[in-house]
Automatic annotation (TrEMBL):
Domain HTH tetR-type: 8-68
Keywords, in A-Z order: DNA-binding, Repressor, Transcription, Transcription regulation
Protein name listed in UniProt: TetR/AcrR family transcriptional regulator
Lineage of producing organism: Bacteria, Bacillati, Actinomycetota, Actinomycetes, Mycobacteriales
Pfam family, one: TetR_N
DNA-binding region: 31-50
Amino acid sequence: MSTSDSGLSRREELLAVATKLFAARGYHGTRMDDVADAVGLNKATVYHYYASKSLILYDIYKSAADFTVDALHDDPTASARETIYHFTRRLLVGIASDVERAAVYFQEGPYITEWFTEDQVAYIRKSETTVYEHVRDVIDRGIASGEFYDCDSHVLALGYIGMTLGSYRWLRPQGRRSAQEIAVEFSTALLRGLIRDEAVRADSPLGLDVSDIAQTR
């Protein structure tokens, strides 16, 4: 497989360029000619790597979906509040590292049944369900252990997903606050509304002390 000057394979380079174009112009507003021109290849070469524009979009979607599922892997011995914080940190850092990918995922979401095969749509929907169920189950675990107040874990999980994954709209890698700092703010606000123990809620809602948080940045 040929490699560009950036060290990426041609396929990876095409995917990165297409992601930026789709984020800026939309899937419908981007032609294969645009991708070829931006990467400095002729269209026939682009079709050698991707037989259709929808296959490029699916690779963007699959990459985003796989990242989100992987980010939710946690230490089963950790407390629910620690798990929520680490989820949030990994998700926000990952989104900040590739804002365009997240933008494409959400901008084109209403239309994927038109462009993807049934199996491709099923893969994406399964990933989304896995994320929701994982977050809901952590909240339920916290409720069952007495760590969290009783609440509607279904509603809270959906709200959490919207809060974190929707951050692509405004999260910037070089912004005033880093993704790690924003994760601390998000997690602290959320967990102080959930934690039963007043001392824990006030002093260590993330399950970490200041030095531990600093080491995760």
